[in-house]
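Format notes (please read before filing issues)

Several people have asked whether sequences and structure tokens are stored in separate files. They are not. Every record keeps both together, in the order shown below: the sequence lines, then the token lines. Line labels are part of the format and must not be stripped during preprocessing.
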Amino acid sequence: MRCDVCGHEMSLWPTDEELDSVPLMDTWTCLWCHADTFRHVESGKIERVPYWPLDSRWERAVFPHFDSAGIHARAFATTTLCGIEAADMLSDDSIMWNPDESASCQACKEMAELVDSRWPRNLRGLEDRG
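Then the structure lines:
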């Protein structure tokens, strides 16, 4: 699948086979601009997540089995924006990662700013990815 925001190839998120014996939806993420797209398996209907600013875009990463310095942003299922990989990484979707918190990872902040710069200005409205 190609990204409608930047034209790069998108990556399919793995499904949790224990929870989703037959997934209802595929989640695709662009590795370049991090645009998310959902495809309903049965109907083929596409849903595109709109642009969100830095302080409301990334979920806070939670590491159940090791202590990580700083507060990190979860980029993909098992990876932070700064590149930490942990198979058991969780996200606390009730707490968004805030790049302005003093304990926020500087490398995550720099990557978040870079990703943000990759979104064209004309696609930053809530209805622009329709």
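For reference, the curators noted about this record: The chain has a mean pLDDT of 86. The chain has two domains: 10-50, 54-117.
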